[in-house]
Amino acid sequence: MDQQAVSQTDGAERSRARSTDPAPAAAKSAGIKRQNWKGEVTYYASVVEVAESVDDIVRIMKDRDRYPSPVRAAGSHHSETHCIDANHGTVIDVTRMNKILAIDKQALTITMQAGVLHIDAAKQLEQQGLQFNVNVEIGNMTVGSAACCGTKESAFPGGYGQVNSYLVGAKLVLASGDLLEVTEQQPELLRAVRSSYGLLGVLYEVTFKVRPHKAMKVYHVAYSVDDFANRLQELIAQNKSMMLYMFPFLGKVVVEYREYVEGKVTSHWQWWLRNFVWASFAPLYAALLTKLLPRPIRYFLLNCFGRLNVVTLAWLVKGGHTSPTDQIIRYPKNAGLSSYTFSIWTFPESEYPQSIRAYFKFCQDYRKQHGFRHNLLSVGYRVAQDTHSLFSYSARETSMTLDPVSTGDPGWEAFLDAYNEFSIQHNGIPLFNQSPRLTPAQAKQALGPQIQEFQEVRRRHDPTDRLYTDWFRGLFE
To answer: Which of 126, 168, 307, 399 could, after both became Cys, cross-link 394 (CB 3.0–4.6 A)?
Structure first.
């Protein structure tokens, strides 16, 4: 096949992939409009039902006339992709199923209904002298979503960076309306549940392993991108959790180092300051600049703000005994001007020095060629090798992410298309809920064997495609 034919084929495939993103016109005319938190993903459901018990979920699942397929459970809708879609189908809102059922200090577990918010559970654990093994930033994430979808956080030595790696028990309502309990005694099925995105059944109860609460030391060090890439193995050898704040247009990387320490928690202000800037001030500042100023002035001011961030993180945001739970942010229920969006791909750690250099160059070149740059920083996480879930993005080896962040201004979607191509060319692996505008070809190239294995499990538990959506069908088939 010649290059022109390849180009035409790729373009047609990309067009087909994009066509699965917007809601069909028929759904719009007859459906209930639903959106993700940021308002970038829209779909139209035929029915939206609030569940307050497992009996409600069973009733909905069995009544196929009143509750059409596909059936999708919904929490706070913080996903960045159309994995949430239920066009023409039924949405089961599980947010009222929000009870913490048991905290076992001996077994070090917490059992909850699926609609509990991550931040609410973390606060309850902290009062009991416990904490989650993984404390992710988005506190509005429901624990049902955390149990079966992709997440990321910097791993601590001996631990993992994906929340679902610590899921040890799950109860689901199957497509038939029957109940299924999955435990560590069924390791392969549990691996599939941890990556199921609601396609095996509707989760109504989950159990996670937790750990004793410990104080955490945090500090930041600034590097040039070349210095960071050259010294990466040396920095990893320090054996600390590593999160990256990246400034591609300044050539800077700030590493946030974390480690557990003995002693009591003595300060909280560091995380309050970081969370205020990250979740409120920075996106509001970027959104206002984007709305009010032309690109040259806007980008100059964004660079000034980036330099201030580098200095502030390196010299101010540090603490010897902070609380891990304070990392978690409770976002407002409705997104406003201070809301932001992002994309996540992970890259093999062994190739990360080349990948991060290439990413900085990619962002700079894209601005020169198209006049667009994402208006917030990029972030990265070092995530330990982990095979606990079927779609684990660090199954082959420890991985590190490159995550552009933006307020979603015009030009963002086209940038994401180019970023996705960059990522797949650099052996990146996506998250089905956090890597928007993913194409079927990219999904198969990154996770083809895992998709095939998951499909076999899914068909056994949902032979009539009661839970299967057009978006996943397009991505998987």
So the answer is: 399
